[in-house]
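In pairs, describe these two lines:
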Amino acid sequence: MPQEKNNLFILISQHEDIEVMQNKDNEQKSLFAACDFNVGDTIATFDASKIVDTPNYLTVQISETKHIHLFPEYLQYINHSCEPNVLFNTTTMQLECVSAIQAGDELCFFYPATEWRMAQQFVCNCGKPSCIGLVQGAADTASEVLNKYKRTDFIKSMATKYKTFLLLF
């Protein structure tokens, strides 16, 4: 049964060291830390519940032609931020802490760190000083922006491939 955690969120479910919360105003679900994590900590391991060849708003890209639906499913509630604290490390299949997290913090990742091309771009509402405004895949994000973030091995390889291709022409 859902519990009210504070005036803004309702606890939907609890999973080891993380909680799914729902905003009472807009009904958006988010994932929050139930304990502290340090940089480099593994917060959760994940796998693919389904592999598809085209991206959608619920997938994480693992290769040029493969996008996964996350398992466990509750990881889909990790939202975007231009100051992320987690990364979906698709090489190790671990949700990795990339900046210190305290209990009660929302877990957020930087979409272009995992997505080469996104199904749909969107205007960021993270409100952080470093906000990039329009969130697109890494292919459409300036390299000087991308280089500020930890990215998956796949995104790093695509950036290198793309950069090499441009140097040839």
Summary: The CA atoms of residues 9 and 24 lie 6 Å apart.
